[in-house]
Design a protein that fits this description.
The protein contains 13 helices and 13 strands. By secondary structure, the chain is of the alpha/beta class. Strands 1, 4, 5, 6, 7 and 13 form a 6-stranded mixed beta sheet that branches. A 5-stranded mixed beta sheet has the order 10-9-11-8-12, sandwiched between helices. Mean pLDDT is 92; it is low at 1-20.
């Protein structure tokens, strides 16, 4: 009996690995990328007034569709709660998860999922009412704090307050929109989340001037995509699309000039855009996959500025998300 059970487990593992290896082929055959996103984080993934998804994470979904399918519009967005996001990916309901998800040790080793490159460096912060006269985390001693269930924020909140001998009462929510409503209705003294997400939430509030995000953060929140384990080709594809967007910014390749740059003489740009070399073959893509992605959404800097930077309502500074040669942490693996 024990041998039969072990054989069954092995068979299931083999079947799962075989299915995982087929993601790229499945996306091509389907003609549509199925992308897991949030249920509504301004600046990252949220439907606009016409119901079309916009945001940094959305642009990454579009970049993948452009690189793989040659058409950035070939995406079906699946809005997921924090609790459901990883299960949806594990179960094959989505092809890739771009849902401002923090990369951690436990998620890397315990979910059967692969973490992609960091596409946004963030930190956990707190939103409060301005008239509460709270200026730092210490001022939240004894506060009631809204937090989303199934997030790293729950753990960080408890760890931080216990380590500082601060008391708090958590109010936990499954849905982000419900948490926002509760905070604005005064059910919580503060709300905690990634600082960038808080900035987006307050921009959308009925009276944004009544609230503020505290300048202090309590954690490192490296955000990035997730794919299924066992599918090296697909995981590599997602990673190299990110590298291409960052490399494009470093070399001045933009959405507007990418086609012209492909005909230039810079050897690095020529390799990046598929004018020379065979950098598409090993991924199973057209050699101009990076050119397709950049022409669809622009380089990393363009994506950042449009969605969360100075060209957006959030007006976030580049900070750690700046290029490595401008004091930031964004660094592309070389195309050679």
């Amino acid at each position: 009996m024990k041998r039969l059970i072990l054989a069954a487990v092995a068979a299931l593992a083999f079947t799962g690995a075989a299915q995982a290896q087929q993601t790229l082929a499945a996306v091509k055959a389907r003609g549509t990328l199925i992308c897991g996103v949030s249920q509504g984080f301004a600046g990252f993934s949220a439907p606009d007034s016409r119901g079309e998804y916009r945001g940094l994470d959305v642009d990454y979904c579009r970049a993948v569709a452009a690189a793989v399918l040659g058409d950035a519009s070939k995406v079906r967005y699946v809005p997921l709660t924090a609790q459901a996001r990883f299960t949806a990916l594990q179960g094959g309901e989505i092809d890739v998860l771009f849902r401002n998800s923090t990369q951690t040790y436990s998620r890397a080793t315990g979910l059967g999922l692969a973490q992609g490159p960091v596409n946004f460096y963030d930190g956990q912060g707190f939103a409060v009412r301005r008239d509460a006269n709270v200026r730092n985390v210490a001022g939240l001693d004894g506060a009631t704090i809204c937090v989303a269930q199934g997030t790293t924020h729950e753990l960080n909140l408890g760890d931080t307050f216990r380590s500082r001998n601060l008391k708090f009462s958590p109010v936990v929510f499954e849905r982000i929109d419900t948490m926002y409503e509760a905070f604005y209705a005064g059910r919580c003294d503060a709300m905690t989340q990634d600082a960038s997400a808080l900035a987006g939430a307050l921009v959308s509030a009925r009276n944004p001037a009544a609230y503020m995000v505290l300048p202090e953060t309590i954690s490192k929140e490296p955000l990035g995509p997730f794919t299924r384990n066992g599918d090296v080709q697909w995981t590599n594809t997602i990673a190299w699309i990110h590298n291409a967007l960052v490399e494009a910014e470093e070399y001045g390749v933009t959405q507007a000039n990418a086609q012209a740059q492909a005909a230039g003489t810079n050897p690095t740009i020529q390799r990046l855009l598929g004018a020379t070399g065979e950098f598409g073959k090993t991924l199973g893509l057209d050699n101009a996959w990076a050119l397709h992605a950049i022409r669809a959404v622009g380089n990393y800097g363009e994506i950042f500025e449009r969605n969360v930077g100075q060209g957006s309502p959030l007006k976030l500074a580049r900070g750690l998300n700046g290029l490595w040669n401008h004091g930031g942490l964004m660094y592309a693996i070389p195309f050679r």
